[in-house]
Structure formats: C-alpha cells, structure tokens
C-alpha cells in the first residue's frame, strides 16, 4: 500500500541559511526477501530456532531540496520486520526540514523521540535504516564512495563464503559449493557446525579441510548452538584444523563463557554478530571474550554506532569481521585500520541493481558514490507496505 502524507514541520532557520539544503521527503518500505535456501536448520541444539526462509527489510529513501538522495536499510532475519516499519513511521516526519549533514544531531533527535521504546533492539534498528541513508546521502553529496568518505585503508576486503550449506546439507555438497565459491574468487570458507553429535562436527570439518587443502582459510560457524561444556569439548578438538576462527560458539550474551573459551583454545573466537548495541560489543572487548569482533551495522543501529565499535575494536587490536549485508559492510571494513574481513553473502543481491565484484579472495570496494546501491524492480514487487512523508508547500 502506498500512502502520501504531507506534514508541516518547524524548521531551524539558521540551518537553512547555513547549508541551503534540507530533507524534504522520506519514503519507507517494508520488503520481504525470499531466500532460495534457508538460513540455519532444525539441527540446532535443543531445536530452539527454526530455519529462516525470508528476511524482512526496512528501506529508507531520503531526498533533499537540492535534489540529492540517500538509501538506507536495516533488517530482521526472524520476527520484527513489521515492528521496525511501525517505529520508523512514527519518527520519520521528524526528519523533514533537517540538515542532512548533521547526522549525529538528527540521530539523537530520533532516539529521543522514541526513548520510551529503548535505545537498543528494534528502536535502534529502525533508526539504523535512516542513519545508513544519511551516510549514503553525505557520501553522494561529496561524490565519494562511503569507504573513501570515512577514510579507506584498502580498495578490496578479504572475504569468505557462507553459502557452503547448513547442517542438513550433506558434506559432499558443502565441498562442491565451497569449490565453486573459491573458483568465483572468494578467499575462504565458513563451515556450519553445532550438531548434537560432536563427532559429526569433527568429521564435517575434517572432510572439508582434506578436500580443499591446508591453504584455504576455514572458519567453523556454530551459530550460538552450544553450551559452555560442548563448546569447550568441540573447540579443543577443532584446534587441530588450523581454523581462521570459531564463530558464535555460545549465546551472544555469555561474555564469561566466551572469555573462558578464548583463553582455552588455540583457535581465535569470533563473537558479536547478534549484539544489538555498542555496549554489548564493549562488554565483549573489555571481558577479553573474543579475538574477532563481528558487528552488524543494521543490528546495532546504523553506521554511526558501527564506527564507534570499530574505533574501540581497533584500540583492542581485534580483527573486524561483519557477517551479513556485504554491500554495506565492505565499505565499513575497508575503513577499518586493523585486520578486516567480510562474509560474502550473495543472498541480498536480488534487492539491488548493482553487483559486487569478487576476485583474488576479496570483495572490491565499489567506486560509485555513497554505498553505491539502487533498488531493483524485484524489490518493489516484494514490497508489502510503503509510505511517504513530504514537506507541504
């Protein structure tokens, strides 16, 4: 459904004089992206989570009086899409008349408006779509790729594939998928682990390692499926495979468990993919609970908080490895001073007209202004609701 709403907003006259440009329209869309293959499966310990067959996206399209445009997004891989959209609809009118350069101030205005809904989780993620859109807009106005605007350290970011297959996929198919991804230019392979049977995980990783050889970087991804005991037992056995890291072995909030595991294993532990705030990442860092940090810009509320996490991670000399939305995270990882790597996630590709270039084990940073994305016609087809706010003349 498309709704056009005209809203009268009090403008800051000084802001108008200072820049001559202001936000005069905001379009929000709720889009459901169907997945060709599910994320996760029923073999998780305890059967706590079901496979993800679609991802809900909140898109924020921002326009200014000078004719500039920005595109931002956030997402919910399980429940939460309609809630993101509902919160964004409430606060979006507050953007009208604002100076698009003042990202920090505008963001705080939106946070204050929704303070009763909290500063993390759904409320922050709804604001995150706008925050990404503001940064996209800022980079486009500067005619720079987002990575260049932030201060890029590299033109391409090392990557690994996550498309080998879930636990229910036979290991021979995992190997076939991995080989295909490597031939297409990806640099490493993430193997799903976390079965109830430790032997199953060990044989799975062993088969992939033997098939691909010792030179291919391997990651074991447990998707938060283990308790402390199983993580310790399995992690120690996985040390023999010279893994790049062991990702998400425990519940995201078990900082002490992650710290104990980090101290016990030769393999680095990666955490933070499901953390929803700068504070949660700070606990992982100060608790020495990870050697690899996996912040997700959309999950923690946008690019602004991501940059705070990245600055703290650099001070702790951690590897930065975002695990979703490669189209966005390749820019942020390129601007990270330390070691950085992204997951090459091709599931989002149908949403956009532009495609990422992957070669020689890395994702090239797009040279287009901003994030470098425009929405595809298919994304419009998958739109379930849409609303636009505009200044009245």
Number of strands: 15
> How do the SSEs run, as a string of H and E?
EHEEEHHHHEHEHEHEHEHEHHEHEEEHE
Globally, the shape reads globular
Helix vs. strand class: alpha/beta
Q: pLDDT under 50 segments (min length 5)?
A: 1-18, 41-47
Distance between the termini: 24 Å
Average residue-wise pLDDT: 90
Largest sheet: 10 strands, mixed
Strand content: 15-25%
Rg, rounded, reads 21 Å
The helix content is 25-40%
Number of helices: 14
Description:
The structure is a single chain. This protein is of the alpha/beta class and 393 residues long. It is 37% helix and 22% strand. The strands form two sheets. Strands 5, 6, 7, 8, 9, 10, 11, 12, 13 and 14 form a ten-stranded mixed beta sheet that branches. The protein has a five-stranded mixed beta sheet with strand order 1-15-2-3-4. Helix 2 crosses helix 4 and helix 3 packs antiparallel against helix 4 (121-141). It is globular and about 65 Å long. The protein starts with a strand and ends with a strand. The relative contact order is 0.16. The model is unreliable at 1-18 and 41-47 (pLDDT under 50).
TL;DR of this structure?
This protein is α/β, with parallel strands linked by helices and 393 residues long.
Task: Note the main attributes of this structure.
10-stranded mixed beta sheet, alpha/beta, 14 helices, about 35% helix, disordered N terminus, about 400 residues
């Amino acid at each position: 459904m498309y709704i056009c709403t005209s809203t009268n907003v009090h403008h800051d006259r000084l802001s108008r004089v200072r820049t001559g440009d202001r936000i005069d329209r905001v379009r929000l869309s709720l889009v459901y992206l169907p997945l060709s293959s599910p994320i996760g499966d029923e073999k998780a310990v305890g059967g706590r989570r079901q496979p993800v067959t679609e991802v809900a996206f909140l898109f924020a399209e921002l326009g200014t009086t000078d004719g500039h445009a920005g595109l931002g997004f956030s997402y919910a891989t399980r429940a939460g899409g309609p809630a993101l959209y509902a919160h964004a609809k409430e606060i979006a009118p507050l953007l009208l008349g604002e100076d698009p350069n003042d990202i920090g101030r505008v963001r705080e205005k939106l946070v204050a408006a929704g303070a009763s809904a909290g500063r993390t989780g759904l409320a922050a993620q709804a604001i995150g779509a706008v925050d990404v859109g503001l940064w996209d807009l800022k980079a486009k106005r500067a005619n720079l790729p987002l990575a260049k605007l932030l201060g890029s350290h590299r033109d391409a970011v090392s990557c690994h594939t996550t498309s080998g297959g879930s636990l229910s996929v036979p290991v021979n198919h995992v190997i076939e998928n991995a080989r295909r991804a490597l031939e297409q230019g990806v640099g490493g392979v993430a193997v799903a682990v976390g079965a109830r049977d430790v032997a199953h995980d060990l044989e799975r990783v062993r088969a992939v390692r033997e098939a691909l050889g010792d030179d291919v970087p391997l990651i074991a991804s447990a998707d938060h499926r283990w308790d402390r005991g199983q993580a310790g037992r399995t992690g120690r056995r996985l040390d023999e495979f010279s893994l790049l890291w062991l990702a998400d072995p425990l519940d995201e909030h078990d900082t002490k468990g992650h710290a104990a595991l980090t101290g016990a294993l030769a393999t680095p532990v990666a955490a933070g993919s499901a953390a929803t705030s700068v504070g949660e990442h700070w606990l992982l860092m100060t608790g020495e609970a990870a050697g690899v940090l996996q912040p997700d810009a959309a999950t923690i509320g946008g690019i602004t908080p991501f940059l705070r996490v990245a600055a703290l991670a650099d001070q702790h000399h951690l590897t930065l490895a975002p695990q979703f939305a490669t189209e966005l995270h390749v820019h942020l990882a390129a601007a990270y001073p330390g070691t950085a790597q992204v997951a090459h996630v091709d599931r989002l590709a149908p949403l956009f007209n532009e495609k990422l270039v992957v070669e020689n084990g890395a994702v090239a940073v797009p040279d287009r202004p901003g994030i470098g994305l425009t929405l595809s016609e298919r994304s419009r087809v998958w739109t379930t609701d849409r609303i636009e706010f505009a200044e009245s003349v």
